[in-house]
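Q: Structure tokens for this one, please.
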Amino acid sequence: YLRLADLFFEDKNYEVAQAYYDSTARVVLKKHPQHDIIKAKNKSLTTLVENMRQIALQDSLQRIGKLSKEEQEQVVLEIIERLKAEEERVREERLQKQIQDAMLLANNAGKGGKFWVYNPQLKSSGFAEFKKKWGDREKEDNWRRSNKAEVMMVSMGGSDQDEEDSTSAEVAERYNPQTYLKNIPQTAEDYEKSNALIIKAIYGEGVVYKDELKDYKEATNSFKELIRRFPDAGLTPAAIYQLYRVGSLSSAVNAEQYKSLLLAEFPTSQYAQLIVDPNYLEKRKKEQDKLKDEYREYFKEYKRGNYQAVILKANEVAADTTMGEFRCQYLYLKALSIGRITPPVVNPEPFEKALTDVIRMCRSTEVGKEAQKTLDLMKNQTTVTGADEGESTYIYESGTPHFFIYVHDKSTGSINPIKMSVSNFNGNSFSSKGLVTSSNFLNTTKQLIMVKSFATKNEAMDYFIAFKVNKTSVKRYNKEDNFFVISGKNYASLLIEKEEAAYQAFFIKNYMD
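A: Here is the predicted structure, written as tokens:
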């Protein structure tokens, strides 16, 4: 495998080389002199092939999307038929391989005419027994598939498994035209999403060629393709800059040509600034550090309850797109401040509007996703916010389902040992309850371990007391007051507030009587 991998790599047949490196990487020992090289090449080539297949898949889907409904269905049916034929071919190939392996194994173990390989009757019965026990399986995945349609089907929801390894439902899904038709772009938004995947994959492909494989010719082809196909894409300035860098490293392109293009077409981009000012990145880092420190100060103001100061600052930076991620963080902090000033339980509209503004202005960012999650929680639950300085307007509902919550400070180490101890405690003391243990983030510094669920407050408190007095499984973790029980609605509120102190006060007042 390694020799073949190296040969295909030298010929720049990267897709086939990846397959052989992948097989080699699965079995190569750490003491092998090329262990690290094999692993590194496999990682780089795997990323490259994933990008290549993403481009091929999205291009294929877009071509099919431009056909009529009837033509789309016909194309998908033809692909399914080819998929079935390929799976049948693979099964036959595996079957023959298994027969050969079995014969070779037995040949090494036996001698003389009594050995089964020389006896047709024994050979037939032996093979039947082998197939009955092991089925049509092989030691490795069948990674040598080169059929583009099959790669497309797998990416769209097909499977690399044989039918024997799949449930009947999985097989039916794999051969159902709707499984694939639903992935074909139909609307302008669908095509926009598909193009975004292509742009990201072409750029990623070019970066692997340039930085990891040092194949500057192929890197040039990738970056030029991105510029040609998507001249207005967000990554186009980056692609032009990469071509400038390729020209600086090799003779594949004229560096000055792309330097001039970048400065002419995208003079305000950070990539143009990198060319104009060699110290740009260092200066940019200092600016980012300054913005980070300033944001931390306003976050402290938010924690102190100085919500108006936060809102004023957020309004000040709302139109400043040069602040990058910090602009969105200020806007989200403003939304949370509005939610504290006017609790949703009193009037949900101000908080909802503020969150909607964050989502609209920061849709593709992590902050935008967090704002969407908060908005969904608020809409799906009758949540109550507005707690401050140890007081809360959480709802007390003793007859509703409750959860047990353990608050973990990330600075003290990994959450996994605690989670394992809680699971062991559940198995030892509450095995008949069918409790489920999971984890979630409360904020940037704290995580939650949740045990669910209990039908009522009383059931949850029975668990709480058992946890608190336990002397075995969780004895290292039940000494502090960082655990409590909480209703479903109040849990949603807790995730919105992102601080447990107010709920702790509510819990002590209402549950610890």
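A few notes: The chain has 22 helices and four strands. The radius of gyration is 30 Å.
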